[in-house]
Amino acid sequence: MLAVSFASWLDLPGYSISECLGGTPIILRIPKILLCRLPSVAIASYMECYAKQLALRRNIRPQMKVTSITKQGEFWLTEGRHKDGRPFSITSRQIVLACGKTKSRTLGVRYSYLIYSSLFYAYAESEYRIIIVGDGISSADAVRYCLENDLPVLHIIRRTDGQLRSILMSRLSPSHYVEYHSIYRLMVGRDTHSLYQRYTASNIIKIENDYIIVRTPKGDIEVAININ
Predict the structure, then answer these.
(1) Is 199 a domain residue?
(2) Which residues lie closer than 8 Å to 21 by C-beta, 6 or more apart?
(3) What's the CATH code of the domain at 77?
(4) Is 165 within the bounds of a domain?
(5) Which phi and psi angles does 88 have, rounded to 5°?
């Protein structure tokens, strides 16, 4: 799997990807045309190499889960567990939460705070369509997962058909990102799938226990769901 970002975008201060991987077997096996976007295994190798080169290993704690962060006077107490279950605690004057975004996007309606990190329970309720909102990489991953597991999908996209022509996935190489290209073609209506239905220029305006209301350019539509 190739990284979505170009290799030059992933350089860290003080030691670049080219300095770390240049001339190594992992690079020599990659065709020159692909070097602008590296496979994930190369990025993982760079991260490990970076920590070693800059003597940061003692400051990096992998495979740990943070369970609580509390203020203790002038200090912060971070607590959690190692992968094997052993507890840990770290006291520091400052703490930075690297969440990727400063603000999560929400639907702004009741029940939209319900978040599930897995589609495991969808198998038991496969007669209901899986509602997926958005047009980014994560949304495409969710669509692909559902279709690969024969789960029906209702894809709600806020952008219009015209606006979809300029999103990130429209610029991904069809030969390098076959899976994303196939989902993008579904999103813009170039291809069809028996388990996939889309609404563009649409949004969810109401969520109840057994249905949602989707506002589309052609009017409001009620869709049966189950969020119990």
Answers:
(1) yes
(2) 27, 38, 42, 45, 46, 49
(3) 2.40.50
(4) yes
(5) -145, 160
User: How far is it, in rounded angstroms, from Cα 78 to Cα 94?
Assistant: 11
DSSP state string for 22-67: TTSHHHHTS-GGGTTS-BHHHHHHHHHHHHHHTT-GGG---SEEEE
CA 115 to chain centre: 14
State the total domains in the chain: 3
**Global confidence as pTM:** 0.57
Listed as ranges, residues in the chain with pLDDT below 70 are 1-9, 22-37, 98-127, 227-228
Domain carrying residue 69:
61-101
Asked if residue 109 belongs to a domain, the reply is no
- Relative orientation angle of helices 137-148 and 178-187, to the nearest 10 degrees: 90
Strands annotated E in the chain: 64-72, 75-82, 87-92, 130-133, 153-156, 196-199, 203-207, 211-216, 219-224
Q: Does one domain contain both 30 and 20?
A: yes
- Mark whether 51 and 72 lie in a shared domain: no
Q: List CB contacts of 36: < 8 A, sequence separation 6 or more.
A: 6, 7, 8
Shared domain for 128 and 217, answered yes or no, is: yes
Predicted confidence (pLDDT) per residue in 104-158, tens digit: 666 666 655 554 444 444 454 556 788 999 998 888 988 998 998 899 999 999 9
CATH number at residue 217: 3.50.50.60
